[in-house]
Design brief:
The chain has one domain: OB fold (Dihydrolipoamide Acetyltransferase, E2P) (Beta Barrel). The strands form 2 sheets. The chain has a 6-stranded antiparallel sheet. A 3-stranded antiparallel sheet has the order 4-6-7. About 7% of the residues have low confidence. It is α+β, with helices and mostly antiparallel strands. Strand 1 and strand 2 form a beta hairpin. The longest helix has 16 residues. The protein contains 5 helices and 9 strands.
């Protein structure tokens, strides 16, 4: 395949290097879409689905808008040090906002994981039962603590976005 491609390369280069008369160049006409049919990225709700708490938990609402994953932030994982045990919630547990949904123990200390919103636990992250240290490797992605069915998605509006959370961390460190 590469021999075939290299044999066409000189021909393609010569063809592209030729100057075409202006009349041969077609002008691109702008395509118009019906109003409201195109969503820009800035209006997409998906970039705002991850929120943070001042107590260093994160919550990420799923595309269905009903379930969310909860975990600890990278800052919290770094502050805890090497995680040795994760207490996962039991399925069906109903939690209110700011109630413990689990706990994380490290060589330095132990800390409750608080639910940022009210809801019902769907499941805990079984990976963490056998490999608690995974939280140190992927705290804000695959090492979530619990998945919950959110009682009221509007509660997420009161939480911090990424920029506000970073400002909170900087203020806390100083």
């Amino acid at each position: 395949m590469s021999a075939l491609a290299s044999s066409f390369r000189p021909v393609a280069s010569r063809f592209l290097a030729q100057k075409l008369p202006l009349s041969a160049v077609r002008r691109a006409t702008p395509v118009s879409f019906p109003r409201g049919s195109v969503r820009s990225f800035s209006q997409s709700p998906f970039w705002q689905l991850k929120k943070y708490t001042e107590s260093h938990e994160w919550i990420e609402l799923a595309d269905n808008g009903k379930t969310a994953k909860i975990g600890i932030t990278a800052y919290a994982a770094h502050s805890l040090g090497d995680v040795v045990y994760v207490e996962l919630p039991s399925e069906g547990l109903e939690v209110s906002a700011n109630e413990p949904v689990g706990a994380v123990e490290s060589v330095k200390s132990a800390s409750d994981v608080l639910s940022p919103v009210a809801g019902t636990v769907v499941r805990g992250n079984a990976i963490l039962e056998d490999k608690a240290k995974f939280i140190n490797e992927s705290p804000e992605a695959e090492a979530w603590i619990a998945e919950i069915e959110v009682a009221d998605a509007a509660e997420l509006d009161s939480l911090l976005d990424e920029a506000a959370y970073k400002a909170h961390i900087e203020a806390e460190d100083h």
